[in-house]
Amino acid sequence: MKTENRRSMLKKMAGSAAAVPLASFSFKNLPSTFVPLKGNIKHSVCKWCYRDVPLDEFCAAVKKMGIQSVELLGPEEWPTLNKHGLECALGAYWTDGFGIAKCYNRKEYHQKLYDLYAESIPMAAKAGLTQLITFSGNRDGMDDETGMKNCAEGLKKIMPIAEKHGITIVMELLNSKVNHPDYMCDHTEWGVELCKMVGSDNFKLLYDIYHMQIMEGDVIATIQKYHPYISHYHTGGVPGRAEIDETQELYYPAIVQAIVDTGFNGFLAQEFIPKEDPLASLEASIRICDV
Predict the structure, then answer these.
(1) Across the beta sheet with 69-71, what order do the strands follow?
(2) What domains are defined for the chain?
(3) How far is 185 from 90, CA to CA, in rounded Å?
(4) Residue 43 CB partners (closer than 8 Å, separation 6+)
(5) Average pLDDT, the chain
(6) Which of 147, 178, 243, 258 could disulfide-link to 220, CB 3.0 to 4.6 Å?
(7) What is Dmax (Cα atoms) for the chain?
(8) Residue 263 has what pLDDT?
(9) Choice among 23-37, 97-111, 161-175 with the minimum mean pLDDT
(10) Is the pTM higher than 0.85?
């Protein structure tokens, strides 16, 4: 697509704000009167990208943008979201050092992980959440087939609890090329095969568009093929996980439209590191994704 056509399309996606040139709209001079979002996709945002903004202040700002969720937050932060009428579309609950590098692909962690999720799943459900994040862990010399079997074994143990409380456990697909060297769940097909092995509708994937563009590309075709196994999406500009505007290689209006066309009714969360004014960049990105 020619640059001028692409910019025209992005300005059209921005609704009434299209009177402002895209380069300005992305970061500055946002409309003083909020234009309602179209409602075809539910919007969320990852708070960790805005560490310098206090949570209470952040919630007030994103609520005005039409964002419905602030995510990757733990139990101590959920009440602040409730105060502002916001959801936590994807909860985080980590202790004992578990996380991206150290998780389900090691059998020696399974009991502690079981105890962790047995506590956190009912807590999340009581707070109104429907999803909790998890990870595969790093390879550290383990082959992918063994890692998949180990993950499935551990995850199956918590599925009855997740199913009872209506919580979906969501494993994130991350790149092992740039940001998370040696991470095991780094390709969509591996994650999909794990879903099949676990065999529960309460285990799904978080398809992070930024990470999977780096690892495998072919984003729209992958979403179309594997959407039944995906319950959550993250954004991010490639390269550099910056704003999702015309400065990077992905065209988000087409990607989000492909997600909507699958019948997806979950959340799309912004997860980029703003280089410009943080809240202005966030609102501009919401507009770009408002198909």
Answers:
(1) 69-71, 42-46, 267-270, 230-234, 203-208, 168-172, 131-134
(2) 43-289 (3.20.20.150)
(3) 18
(4) 37, 65, 66, 67, 68, 69, 267, 268, 269, 270, 286, 289, 290
(5) 90
(6) 258
(7) 58
(8) 98
(9) 23-37
(10) yes
